[in-house]
Write a structure and sequence with these properties.
- About 35% of the residues lie in helices and about 25% in strands.
- The chain is α/β, with parallel strands linked by helices and about 250 residues long.
- It has 2 domains: about 1-85 and about 175-250, P-loop containing nucleotide triphosphate hydrolases (Rossmann fold), CATH 3.40.50; about 85-170, no CATH class.
- The strands form 2 sheets. The chain has a 6-stranded mixed beta sheet with strand order 6-7-8-3-9-10, sandwiched between helices. A 4-stranded antiparallel beta sheet has the order 2-1-4-5, covered by helices on one side.
- Helix 5 crosses helix 6 and helix 6 (about 155-165) packs parallel to helix 7 (about 185-200).
- The longest helix has 17 residues, at about 185-200.
- It is globular, with a radius of gyration of 18 Å.
- The structure holds adenosine-5'-triphosphate.
- Adenosine-5'-triphosphate (ATP) binds near residues 17 and 46.
- InterPro entries: AAA+_ATPase, ABC_transporter-like_ATP-bd, ABC_transporter-like_CS, ABC_transpr_PhnC, MetN_ABC_transporter-like, P-loop_NTPase.
- This is Phosphonate ABC transporter ATP-binding protein.
- It comes from Phormidesmis priestleyi ULC007.
Length: about 250
């Protein structure tokens, strides 16, 4: 693994929002095919780190490299080409509620489709077969023409994953993909993400509040505490004491 080019590399990255330091001096490398869990309490900087990785936020200090390119030095066209290889499932899913499932899934093509093709597809859906295949992979092919807001939370989560699958990225980033799901559904979604990553040798970076799922479904855990890395290790090396430290409240 040490011989391949990292999918992501952060070199002494800090992220300020006004006076507030969301991330401080982060250096790390993520290699192809790794399944990485970002863990840490609310506000630790997990979502910010994911947004730096997909280039939707530019770091205030340090360098973020993705697929061998320094993101801050790319023009918007080149940045979009890199972003095409990175599929992100956001915490809020970013689905359009009143559209049919197929249109939300087809939004995964938007980085590649022309404006007119995207518009035409809103009237008569294009690439139906690809959408059916992606929905089959997430187990809800029969929901193709259902209105998205008529689906359960777990089904909507699957639509968001299917949208990333039609994009066919090298990397999947998922921000709290099981935050609002019950334990059984959480396991199903985590199994699904793990399988989708393994099948196509995709890299997966997922932020999780549930440390047990991080242990069972990922091969590396990065613990973030107040914007800094507290640990970066294989699950079996992350002791209960480290986890206690990770979630320990700061004394003021
Ligand atoms: N655009 C922004 N402007 C100002 N502050 C921000 C912005 N984005 C994030 N922050 C702040 O940065 C800190 C880290 O936020 P972030 O969303 O990365 O944490 P998180 O670990 O993902 O939390 P959660 O688990 O609750 O999603 C928080 O204090 C948040 O308020």
């Amino acid at each position: 693994m040490a011989f391949s080019v990292p999918v992501f590399e952060l070199k002494q990255v800090s992220q300020q929002f006004g006076q507030f330091s969301a991330l401080r001096n982060i250096s790390l490398q993520i290699y192809p095919g790794e399944r990485v869990a970002l863990v840490g309490s609310s506000g630790a900087g997990k979502s910010t780190l994911l947004r730096l990785l997909n280039g939707s936020v530019r770091s205030t200090r340090g360098e973020v490299w993705a697929m061998g390119r320094n993101l801050s030095q790319l023009n918007s066209k080149r940045l979009r080409q890199i972003q095409q290889q990175i599929g992100t499932i956001y915490q809020q899913l970013n689905l359009v509620d009143n559209l049919r499932v197929i249109h939300n899934v087809n939004a995964g093509h938007l980085g590649r489709w022309s404006f007119f093709k995207a518009l035409a597809s809103l009237m008569v859906p294009l690439e139906v077969e690809t959408a059916v295949k992606a929905l089959s992979q997430v187990g809800i092919a029969e929901k193709l023409y259902e209105r998205t807001d008529r689906l359960s939370g777990g089904q909507q989560q699957r639509v968001a994953i299917a949208r990333v699958l039609v994009q066919n990225p090298l990397v999947i980033l998922a921000d709290e993909p099981i935050a609002s799901l019950d334990p059984e559904l959480s396991r199903e979604i985590m199994d699904l993400l793990q399988n989708l990553a393994e099948q196509a040798d995709r890299t997966l970076v997922v932020s999780l509040h549930d440390v047990d799922f991080a242990r069972s479904h990922c091969d590396r855990m990065i613990g973030l505490r107040q914007g800094q890395i507290l640990f970066d290790a294989a699950p079996h090396q992350v002791s209960p004491d480290l986890i206690a430290d990770l979630y320990r409240l700061e004394s003021h």
